[in-house]
Predict the 3D structure of the following.
Amino acid sequence: MPSQGGQDQTLRAIQEENQRLRRAVDELSILNDLSRAIGASLNTQEIIQTIVRRSLRAINAEQGVITLVEEQSVHSMKTLVRTMVSSTGHEEYHLSEAILGWMHINKKPLVINSPKTDDRFHGVRWDESIRSLLAVPLMVKSEVHGVLTLYNKRDGHPFSDDDQRLLAIIAAQSAQVVENARLYEKERAFVKMQEEVRLAARIQQELLPKVSPSIAGYTIAGRTIPAQEVGGDYFDFIPIDEDRLAICLGDVSGKGLPASLLMANLQATLRGQTGPANPPKSCLERANHLLFASTSPEKFATLFYAILDTKDHRLCYTNAGHDRPFLLSSAPQSRRLQTGGIPLGMMDAATFEEESLGLSAGDTVVMYSDGVSEAMNPDEEMFGEERIADVISSHRNASPSELIDHIVAAVKSFVSNHPQTDDITIVALSRTSE
C-alpha cells in the first residue's frame, strides 16, 4: 500500500495534469472561437479589433495594439496601420520604434516585465503607467508583417511563459488572415483607382476637340497621345467670331491624374479669357494670374497660344515657355516662332510679348509638346528638334493630319521599344489657298 507521501505526490501530479488539460482545452476553445470570428471577415480593421479584444481577454491584459508594417530596408520598418483596444480609463500607448526594430531583427516573442530596468532597451523612454508588455510578431513567409503587443496584466502580475506561448499561437494563427484581408483591400482599392483613372481618361478625352474646325482656306489638325491613361498635355480650338480662331497647345507639370486636373483647370481658364477684346498677350497675363492664385508653387504650365485671323490671314501669338513652333514657308529652311515669356503659374506679375505674322498660301505652322522632342531611344538619345525639322521639311506638301502622322511615325521608329515617358501632342495649321 502506497505511503501517505506517495499518495499526496500522485494527487498533486493528477491535479497538475488536470490543470494542464483544462488550460489546453481553454486555449483550444479560445483559438477555435478566434478562428471562426476572424475567418468570416475580409475587413482588416474588424479582424484586428477582434484579435486584440480576444487576446486581451485570453491573457487578462489592460491594453493591446496591432501594428502592421512593411519592410523598407534592412534596418527600418514603416508603420502602416495601428489599431488600439484599451480598457476604459487607460491612456493609449504607442509601440516604440525600438520594439519594432527588435522584432524585425529577432522575429520572436518578447516579454518585458520591468521596462525601466531592461538592459535590452536602455535609453528608451517608457510611459510611467507601463508596468509590463508582451509582444509577438505576425509572421508571413518568415517575414514580420506586424506586431501584436499587450500591456499590463490586470491582476498586476508579470506576463508568464504560458501567456507568451498562447499569444504566440494567436499571432501565428492570425497573421495570414490579417495579411489576406490587407491584400484583398489593396486589390479592391487598386481596382477602384483603375476605374477612376479610366473615368478621368474619358472625361479628359471629352475636353479635347472631337473634330478639327472647318476653316475656309485653311486646314488644321491636332492629336495627343498620353504616356499614361490620363495626361497633362492639352490642345484646343476656341472659336472667337466668324473670322477668328484661338489655337492652344499646352503642357502642365507632372503626369497622371494631378496633371490632368491642372490641364482641365488651364483649359477652363483659357476658355474664360478668350474673347474678341483679348489679344494673346492680355489673355495669357490674366490666365497666368488666375493659375498662380489657384495652384501650389510647384505647379506650372507651358503654353503656346495664338489667334488666327482668316480675314487678314495673320497669326497673332505669344508663348509661355513652351517649345517654339516651326513655321514652314517657301524658304528652304523652316524658322521658329520665338516671341513669348515664362511658363504660366510661376510668377504672379509675369508679362508676355506677342507677335503677329502673315500667312501665305502653302505656309504651315507646327506646334508640339516636349514629349516629341524629348522622346528617347534605348540609348537614351533624344529625338530632338533637328529631327522634327527634318520630318517637316521632308513632308512639306503633306496635309496637317498627314504631317502629324509622319512626325508620330518618326518618333515611334526612333524610340523603338523604349517606353513612352511623356505625353505627345502635335497641332499643325496650313494655309491652303489665297
